[in-house]
């Protein structure tokens, strides 16, 4: 039995996996995020809170950039993906506001607290999404990323039974996952 020289052993341990990593967990977390948009919309509907909150977006993207640097992910990559995630969230919020305005009987009866209840859920999702961005770093740069992402999208949309609004939002949310 020959033992590997230390340097080669280190490479063997730290080298990226040879096979592409599944994009399903990343897509799954993104789907969870567009579903949490229902709670965000419920927290805001019928209040003076606007759908667009640039200060919160800046705070979120600054956090994402700082955490990415610490994780060894290029911050511009994760910031770009999170910008899409935010847009996806707004797609749902706008869609639900329109639906609830047209059909007040469908509006939620309860109003969750945005700060205390809903944003902490989004913050936990941020960490899980960053972990997936990190895990898929190599896969996202491969030519097969697009087709893999498409398959993951179809599977997750079906499994989570996403309606047209959430399906469209999910597509928006993962639109720049590949190629980074
Ligand atoms: O936290 C909010 O107020 C949200 O509406 C969520 C969210 C996001 O996706 O993170 C989306 C839109 C806002 O501009 C800010 C943040």
UniProtKB/TrEMBL annotation:
Does Isomerase show up as a keyword for this record? yes
Q: Name one GO molecular function term.
A: chorismate mutase activity
Entry EC number(s): 5.4.99.5
Pfam families found in the cross-reference section: CM_2
- Write out the pathway annotation from the protein's UniProt entry: Metabolic intermediate biosynthesis; prephenate biosynthesis; prephenate from chorismate: step 1/1
Return the InterPro entries for the record: Chorismate_II_sf, Chorismate_mutase-related, Chorismate_mutase_periplasmic, CM_dom_sf, CM_II_prokaryot
Residue stretches making up the Chorismate mutase domain: 5-97
Bilayer-crossing residues are none
Sorted UniProt keywords = Isomerase, Signal
Q: Which GO terms describe its biological process?
A: chorismate metabolic process; salicylic acid biosynthetic process
Question: What name does the UniProt record give this protein?
Answer: chorismate mutase
What organism is recorded for this protein? Answer: Actinomadura barringtoniae
């Amino acid at each position: 039995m020959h033992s590997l020289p230390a340097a080669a052993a280190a490479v063997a341990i730290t080298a990226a996996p040879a096979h592409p990593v599944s994009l399903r967990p990343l897509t799954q977390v993104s789907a969870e995020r567009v579903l949490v948009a229902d709670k965000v919309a419920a927290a805001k509907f019928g209040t003076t809170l606007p759908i667009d909150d640039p200060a919160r977006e800046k705070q979120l993207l600054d956090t994402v950039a700082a955490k990415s640097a610490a994780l060894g992910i290029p911050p511009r990559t994760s910031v770009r993906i999170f910008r899409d995630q935010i847009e996806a969230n707004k797609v749902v919020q706008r869609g639900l506001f329109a639906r609830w305005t047209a059909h007040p009987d469908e509006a939620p009866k309860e109003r969750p607290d945005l700060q205390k209840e809903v944003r902490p859920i989004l913050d936990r999702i941020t960490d899980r999404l960053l972990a997936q961005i990190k895990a898929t770093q190599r896969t996202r740069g491969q030519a097969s990323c697009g087709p893999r992402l498409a398959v993951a999208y179809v599977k997750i949309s079906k499994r989570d039974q996403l309606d047209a609004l959430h399906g469209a939002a999910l597509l928006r949310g993962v639109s720049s996952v590949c190629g980074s």
